Amino acid sequence: LCEKPMATSLRQADGVIAQAKKSPGIFTVHQSARLDPGFVHIQDVIRSGALGKVFQIRRGGYSYARRNDWQTLRKYGGGLLNNNGVHFLDQVCQLLDSPVRDAWGDLKQIVNPGDADDHIKVIARAESGMVGEVEITYASALPLPAWVVMGSRGTLVSDGKTSRLRYTKARKLPKMKVNDSHMVATRKYGSGETIEFEEKTMPTKLESKRDFYDYLYDSIRKGKPLFVTPESVRQVMWVIQQARKGTAFA
């Protein structure tokens, strides 16, 4: 069992995966945030279809606080991207509907001492066009949503404790024709359509029935498939590599 991040570079990660395939036993990475109750809740809402086809997800972590330990030094692998960023990116990658095609990042050092990043923004686009975004900072003096999920029928906003959903009552909106004219009669814009919405508020802190080590036990003792495969974590490592390109933290 390897702590996250599984390596300090994509090249190292590939080396570890290659060696694991040649070795007896199992190899997995402690991406335990896949079992966070708030994340499982988001998964459940998306799978329910209430939001329609989800096309964009934003995962955020916001605070204004400084630290001066090893996490502020790059020589020890410090920085927000390697720390909380790995968990958040893993969650977002799990929610995308296809493998990541391209990614971009902006990393900054704002309030902490040392030389590691304390403000990160990473955008990943899946092969389908679905977009996932992670933003974490130690320099936000006001709280912002922990989750924003946008779909063809509605939107979810969550502070990590409570989610608010607003979505269309109709599961499918009626077809609409385009008014193929270069000007609008009466100069009134928009279709004039009235859309009815449902609104719902629900807790996100659902009790988890199993933890990471329950799944690990099942793999070691019962031969069940790994809950976290090294290959799924490699995708996160690739996104991290892309996010660092062109920044002072490459």
**What is the overall pLDDT average?**
94
Helix content: 25-40%
Oligomer: single chain
How would the global form be characterised? Answer: globular
What is the CA-CA span between the terminal residues? 27 Å
Written overview of the protein:
- With 250 residues, the protein is α+β, with helices and mostly antiparallel strands.
- The protein has helices spanning 10-22, 37-48, 84-95, 212-222, 230-244; strands at residues 54-62, 100-108, 119-126, 131-137, 147-151, 154-158, 162-168, 197-203.
- The mean pLDDT is 94.
- The radius of gyration is 21 Å and the shape is globular.
- Strands 2-3-4-1-5-6-7-8 form an 8-stranded mixed β-sheet, covered by helices on one side.
- The longest helix is centred in the last third of the chain and has 15 residues, at 230-244.
- The chain is built from 5 helices and 8 strands, in the order ααβαβββββββαα.
Topology:
Elements: H1 10-22, H2 37-48, E1 54-62, H3 84-95, E2 100-108, E3 119-126, E4 131-137, E5 147-151, E6 154-158, E7 162-168, E8 197-203, H4 212-222, H5 230-244
Parallel strand pairs: 1-4
Antiparallel strand pairs: 1-5, 2-3, 3-4, 5-6, 6-7, 7-8
